[in-house]
Design a protein that fits this description.
two-stranded antiparallel ribbon, alpha+beta, 232 residues, 2 domains, single chain
Length: 232
């Protein structure tokens, strides 16, 4: 019996240059989540779908998260053509990826977002993915650099934009900010954000909007911080 590949080709039309191009996805049946870190970094058995979330047009260099391929304005398209496409050397990102190839693709997406002046929440999301990829490589220094980058933009998003358009709710964002502060060893800031989340949960008007697992995890992490500081 022929073995079915865990990856397959799909096609999209680039919203910037309008060329048809091929990109690679992981079959849903092949995705086997093994565990998840407290900042939602997933670990998989077999093929890792995170490696394929960055989609790049080989013709013009437009890059996007797989869920946002068509979410680009006319003004943003012009910026991509001017800042990215004018310097782009045509190359394909389809086919099987290793972590290094995924890092290259995600960094192109990040450059696209910066040149487009995209919302902070989008930049933070991609920065988190890059940090996770470095975690898979056990490159702690680079992981920390991109966690810092993600934190900066998540905080800006919380203060200044409607981040809900990217599928993240207020309370999950509060948790992520607290967890990033914790991972970066800013423990006072971390406990303040986790405490804000727990206080919100005590409000009957907000309680039903907050997943209980976030509260349980936040409480556990606060205890870990206190225990670690007591032993220091």
């Amino acid at each position: 019996m022929e073995t079915v590949s865990p990856i397959y080709s799909s096609h999209a039309k680039c919203p910037v240059c309008e060329s048809e191009f091929e990109y690679t996805k992981v079959r849903s049946k092949a995705i086997k989540l093994k565990q998840q870190d407290s900042d939602f970094c997933p670990w998989y058995e077999g093929e890792n779908p995170v490696l394929y979330e960055a989609v790049i047009c080989p013709e013009c260099g437009y890059g996007s998260h797989i869920t946002n391929i068509d979410k680009i304005s006319r003004n943003e398209k012009a910026k991509v053509r001017e800042k990215i496409s004018s310097r782009w050397h045509k190359r394909s990102f389809s086919g099987k990826r290793d972590i290094d190839k995924a890092l290259e693709a995600f960094k192109i997406v990040l450059l696209n977002l910066k040149e487009r002046e995209a919302p902070s929440s989008e930049i933070a999301k991609i920065s988190m993915r890059i940090a996770w990829l470095y975690r898979y490589k056990e490159d702690r220094e680079s992981e920390k650099a991109f966690l810092n980058y993600a934190l900066k933009y998540y905080v800006d998003s919380f203060k200044n934009e409607d981040f809900s358009r990217n599928g993240i709710d207020t309370y999950t964002l509060i948790f992520i900010i607290g967890e990033l502060y914790r991972r970066l060893e800013h423990y006072e800031d971390s406990m303040q954000w986790f405490s804000r989340l727990i206080q919100s949960y005590s409000d009957p008007a907000k309680k039903d909007k907050i997943p209980p697992r976030l509260i349980d995890t936040a409480r556990d992490l606060i205890q870990e911080i206190k225990q670690d500081r007591a032993m220091a």
